[in-house]
Amino acid sequence: MQRLGKNIGGYHGEIIDIRAVLREVKAAAQLHGWSTELFYKTGDLELLALHRKPLSPRVTGPAPRIYISTGIHGDEPAGPTAALRLLRDNKWPAAAELWLLPCLNPDGFVLNSRGNGDRIDLNRDYRHLESNEVAAHVLWLERQPKFDLTLCLHEDWESHGFYVYELNPDGHAPLGAKMVEAVAKVCPIDLSPVIEGREATSGVIRPSLDPTSRPQWPEAFWLLQNKTRRSCTLEAPSDFPLPVRVDALVAGVNSALGG
Known about the structure:
Strands 1-2-4-3-5-10-6-9-8-7 form a 10-stranded mixed sheet, sandwiched between helices. Helices cover 29% and strands 21% of the residues. The protein has a single domain (18-256), classed as Zn peptidases (Aminopeptidase, 3-Layer(aba) Sandwich), CATH 3.40.630. The longest helix is centred in the last third of the chain and has 15 residues, at 242-256. It is built from 7 helices and 10 strands. The chain has helices spanning 18-31, 78-89, 106-111, 132-142, 176-183, 219-226, 242-256; strands spanning 35-42, 45-52, 65-70, 97-101, 149-156, 163-167, 194-195, 198-201, 204-205, 231-237.
């Protein structure tokens, strides 16, 4: 499978109608027993948090708490589309407690822009909280319990294939290689030794965890400092067709959740 060659200097691929996607997300969530919370609104566009309690008790120990977010960059349509697919497929682990945020930047999707309506890159704002969207998201997060695993779904318009950032300071069983193996069945993997300026091994990046090294924090870094000790950011390759990118993100999530 070859890259399309559309993304020169930025994202120039398919776009989605985020209002339609979010309507379908809400319908799928209601159908499968998720609760829906509105935690911020910009015009008629809603930032939603979906929650599903465990459907069956875990044999030993408490239910694992899993958080998934996407749609923080408005030029990355595979994420919200994958969230909708995951909801419709409804193949979640029955013993898990789940939180799903299907779109953190709806204004960006209307504009087909990485940033929000004020041109702020929300995924660099989790240290200073200059945007209304991130401030509202952090307030919502602060009301939630600690998570056992967080997954942030993204795309990269420059990449040669799928890759994943893995943050795992406590040495839990690694998930990155498992995800890459699952995704390789549906999407090319970026095997570059350096990706986004960071050393990578077989499609997995393990970046520095030192907070002082990051003047601007992405969502995953805030989560690691405040809500979890295990986080992965999944990056689908934007220069491939949208269905391939959606398949990649869905396969990565299902792999991380044990599906």
